[in-house]
């Protein structure tokens, strides 16, 4: 189940899982995160700002595998950033966000994509992107995607429950609680002074909790995740409400758990884990969660710097990135800037396909 690359993936999954939700009186770090997770379930509306920056991305491959295209892509992605500004409300469900992508390097470009989602519809504003032949008469319009129809086209049943944020948050709380219970607070978590957390202006935090993994504890962290936490998480996912939410088949969960208990696969995992430092280097992984006086997680920031080596061909990949999420106007009346697109501002998926089809007739 866990091949050489798989253990590296497990390490990153572990880190991602702990990031789930980011509390009053200053509490012990674990207790503060659990309180913030529960409080996050009471967020019925908010405004959000997210940003991720790729500070460095390198691929050192054997000369026969490298290419001019790889070099060009790396040049574009280095220092690239993606930001999302959004507004959310739970009832009736409505989310709008604007994604902005800035690419750097020799092919500098920037474009934004506003999106709106309701219970059954997704609206995506068609941007003008350099070098892509997008018909001018559809640029600036919103293409409407019917989520129910898309599910049917993929041979699955549309499940509006997948958009049930309260149930999703409940699942996140259970998973987070299971993870926190397995890890030594003194090794992986700590409180840091808000004055030292480089919080942006406007973020008023009473407590900041930091989760951190380094080379010294990454093997232990992955082992705990696979052997202790993951079987319990699979049990959580086996609950009927969560299987329906995620549309997971119990057979898949049973097979995954059987793999974890298989002695031969466990031995292979342990063998590969012992050599983890040969192909995974964690120069930095830390994730901070800032919690305000009302115990809401109002700001989170990530710093990641890793190097992964493929032991089969020697390819080395280095990735350094930073990211942040900021939440404001929690449980206030949301102020939607885009609204739900209407009338001539909207085209269907079929109409968009016709417009692209007409390009080929010239």
UniProtKB/TrEMBL annotation:
<protein>
    <recommendedName>
        <fullName>Lipoprotein</fullName>
    </recommendedName>
</protein>
<keyword id="KW-0175">Coiled coil</keyword>
<feature type="coiled-coil region">
    <location>
        <begin position="239"/>
        <end position="273"/>
    </location>
</feature>
<feature type="signal peptide">
    <location>
        <begin position="1"/>
        <end position="21"/>
    </location>
</feature>
<keyword id="KW-0732">Signal</keyword>
């Amino acid at each position: 189940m866990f091949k050489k690359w798989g253990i590296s993936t497990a390490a990153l999954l572990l880190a991602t899982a702990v990031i789930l939700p980011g509390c009053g009186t200053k509490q012990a770090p674990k207790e503060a995160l659990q309180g913030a997770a529960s409080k996050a379930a009471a967020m019925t509306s908010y405004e959000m700002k997210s940003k991720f920056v790729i500070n460095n991305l390198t691929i050192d491959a054997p000369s026969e595998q490298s290419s001019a295209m790889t070099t060009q892509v790396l040049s574009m992605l280095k220092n690239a950033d993606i930001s999302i500004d959004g507004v959310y409300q739970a009832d009736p469900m409505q989310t709008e966000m604007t994604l902005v992508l800035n690419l750097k390097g020799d092919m500098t470009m920037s474009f934004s994509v506003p999106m709106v989602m309701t219970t059954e519809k997704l609206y995506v504003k068609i941007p003008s992107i350099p070098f892509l032949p997008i018909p001018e008469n559809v640029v600036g319009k919103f293409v409407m995607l019917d989520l129910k129809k898309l599910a049917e086209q993929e041979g699955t049943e549309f499940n509006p429950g997948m958009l049930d944020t309260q149930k999703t948050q409940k699942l996140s709380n259970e998973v987070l609680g299971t993870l926190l219970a397995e890890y030594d607070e003194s090794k992986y978590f700590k409180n840091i002074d808000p004055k030292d957390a480089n919080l942006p202006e406007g973020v008023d935090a009473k407590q900041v909790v930091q989760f951190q993994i380094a080379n010294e504890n990454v093997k232990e962290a992955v082992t705990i995740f696979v052997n202790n936490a993951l079987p319990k998480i699979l049990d959580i996912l086996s609950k009927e409400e969560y299987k329906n939410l995620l549309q997971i088949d119990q057979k898949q969960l049973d097979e995954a758990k059987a793999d974890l208990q298989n002695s031969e696969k466990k031995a292979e995992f342990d063998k590969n884990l012992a050599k983890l430092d040969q192909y995974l280097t964690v120069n930095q992984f830390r994730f901070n969660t800032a919690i305000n006086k009302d115990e809401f997680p109002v700001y989170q920031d990530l710093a990641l710097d890793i190097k992964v080596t493929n032991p089969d061909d020697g390819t080395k990949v280095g990735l350094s990135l930073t990211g942040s999420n900021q939440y404001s106007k929690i449980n206030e009346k949301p102020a939607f800037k885009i609204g739900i697109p209407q009338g001539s501002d909207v085209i269907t998926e079929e109409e968009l396909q016709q417009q692209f089809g007409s390009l080929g007739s010239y």
